[in-house]
Amino acid sequence: MTPRVATVAGAAVPVAEVDEREARLRAGPLAASLPRAGTSEGRQLRRWLTQLLVTERVVAAEAAARGLTADGAPPEDDVLPDTTARLEIGSVAAGVLADPRARALFADLTAGIDVTAAEVAGYQDRNPRRFTDTGDIADHLRGAARRRAFRIWLDARRAELVELAPGYEHPGDPRQPDNTHRH
Fold first, then answer.
1. CA distance 123 to 114
2. For residue 174, what are the contacts with CB-CB under 8 A and spacing of at least 6?
3. Separation of alpha carbons 35 and 168, rounded Å
4. Is the whole-model pTM more than 0.85?
């Protein structure tokens, strides 16, 4: 049996895929900023890469099931317009949204999400100098609501479809030995 980092809807994700993705990163322009392999931080990088790989599979399967392609996908800057948007959706979801098929899924899943005039007015009251145009406020709030909905959907689908192998737990899982987030 081929060693695996996870299964997604019963299909194995081989360790070799994480190895290959890590090797590409280590051969690229960000190599100097990456943690050394075999260290606690290096294992955390592999856990993050595992999360990215399984999320790519979840998204690809859903896009295929819905008959979605890259055609007509919104530009990445429309979905993730700034650093704040990338932080609020999370690094894995932001990484997946680099793929136009993922953005087509994002658009499909969130098409019905909108904001009310009361929400726009409330935001304007709380932040009177942030925007001068209520349309800009509505766009800002709608984008945040859509990212939140996509993130919630994605978390639920991963919980439903993904089973991680021991040693490849989520980097933030407090049960895994390399987790450094302490209270």
1. 14
2. 181
3. 17
4. yes
